[in-house]
Design goal:
418 residues, alpha+beta, 23 strands, 17% helix
Length: 418
């Protein structure tokens, strides 16, 4: 199974390594560095690389590459899912997944990795179970450990490890029982110059925060479950119930967890929430170009578009920009040739516009094609696919914890070709 794990920053420095069997030399990462040099973006590094003696499986989270080394052939998605669990655990324990935070908590990080993997095979990956074995770091706990020489490792085995429900600890009690569900959908779309949709895809995830006493048994129903395709569930979900009735039946873990992920069938029409009017031209003479971009809302169901960011990878010959923005701020990085226009909340009464001139390097030929626009956005309380949760039923102890469902739409790789 998983032989070793390396954590690598954006600069290509290995700042942490963990080996569960024999030590593998860092030189195995050279194959990854070669692939990283060829990739245009950090996210575009191939997740699976084959070397003469190993397989390298990688994810990119928080500007960190989680690179695992595999000696025998295994299902890649199995390893990728475990790496995401590791990143999620760091996020839950330390508040963020960054190089500095990991370096500041090296002892806890190694303790977590030791318990999450046993001889290369996943053992305990649920956050609420890990917290019984390894206490999250706090300032007070660090001071006490320093004074009395103790550690964050618990003395007893988690209660969930001894039951047939290993993802939930026993004896959970809350004064206020509550459950929250967030339906988060991400649009990946490509639009041509005229604004027509070339490709559109929706990936969804249901994040849950369940804080219930006892051992609750929940069922969650959808108004339109036929929209959901290519579903993937948390181990707590009873799959046979879903196959027969299209209902999620489960005993939830305690705390935060991902209940399910899904894909919306591409046969359904994806409503693009914004439109873009753009004009980017590079002239053969004068070593200059012009840029004019306007963005407006479309099919947002009366919701506000937030967190609107436009990213443009400029040709290497662009030296500087002289632009004026009616809303938000823009930055141009001369080293990476990336123009970022941070708009923020979209005001439909006064549409944001960015226009001006581009200075080109003398003697360079006109670019063969214009750059694409990558757009990120967020829309609260809207599921763009139309997926809706109809009801949540609870069995077992009597309480009324259901607090409602929050819907969020985001643009993942929303690309406009110019």
């Amino acid at each position: 199974m998983i032989h070793s794990l390396f954590l690598i920053n954006n600069f290509g420095d290995i700042f942490l390594e963990k080996h569960w069997k024999s030590v593998i030399n860092r030189s195995v990462c050279d194959y990854f560095f070669e692939a990283k040099e060829k990739a245009l973006d950090p996210e575009n590094v191939p997740p699976v690389l084959q070397t003469p003696h190993h397989y390298l499986i990688t994810i990119y989270r928080g500007k960190i590459y989680f690179l695992s080394v595999i000696q025998s052939e295994v299902p890649p998605l199995f390893v990728i899912e475990f790496l995401h669990r590791v990143a999620d655990t760091f996020q839950d324990y330390f508040g963020e997944t960054s190089e500095n935070v990991i370096k500041d908590n090296l002892v806890t990080v190694y303790e977590l990795l030791e318990d999450m993997l046993d001889n290369g095979f996943p053992l305990a990956t649920e956050s609420n179970v890990l917290k019984e074995m390894i206490k999250p770091p706090t300032i007070l706990r660090s001071v006490v450990n320093t004074l009395i020489g103790s550690s964050n490792v618990g003395d007893v085995l988690p209660t969930g490890q001894l039951s047939n429900i290993p993802w939930r600890r026993t004896g959970v009690k809350y004064t206020n029982n509550e459950a929250y569900f967030d339906v988060i959908e991400e649009i990946d779309a490509i639009l041509d110059k005229s604004g027509s949709t070339v490709f559109a895809d929706i990936q969804g995830v249901i994040e849950a925060c369940v804080r219930l006493s006892g051992m609750p048994d929940l069922t969650l129903s959808f108004m339109n479950p036929r929209l959901l395709d290519d579903v993937s569930f948390h181990p707590c979900v009873r799959f046979k119930r879903w196959e027969s009735e299209q209902v999620l039946s489960f005993i939830p873990p305690d705390g935060n967890f991902t209940l399910m992920t899904y894909h919306v069938n591409s046969q359904n029409l994806v409503a693009i929430p914004v439109y873009v009017k753009q004009n980017i031209n590079f002239f053969d003479t004068g070593n200059c170009g012009r840029l004019d971009i306007t963005i407006g809302p479309k099919q947002t169901m009366g919701k506000t578009i937030e967190g609107l960011v436009v990213t443009i990878h400029m040709p290497k010959s662009v030296l500087s920009t002289n632009l004026t923005s009616t809303q938000g701020n823009y930055t141009y990085d001369l080293t990476t040739k990336i123009l970022v226009w941070d708009i923020g909340k979209l005001n439909p009464q006064k549409l944001p516009n960015l226009r001006g001139t581009l200075s080109m390097q003398a003697g360079c030929p006109k670019p063969d094609e214009n750059p694409s626009l990558n757009i990120d956005l967020k829309i609260q309380q809207l599921a763009i696919s139309g997926v809706k949760v109809s009801r949540l039923d609870m069995f077992g102890e009597k309480y009324k914890p259901f607090k409602g469902v929050k819907y969020v739409t985001k643009a993942g790789k929303f690309q406009v070709r110019t």
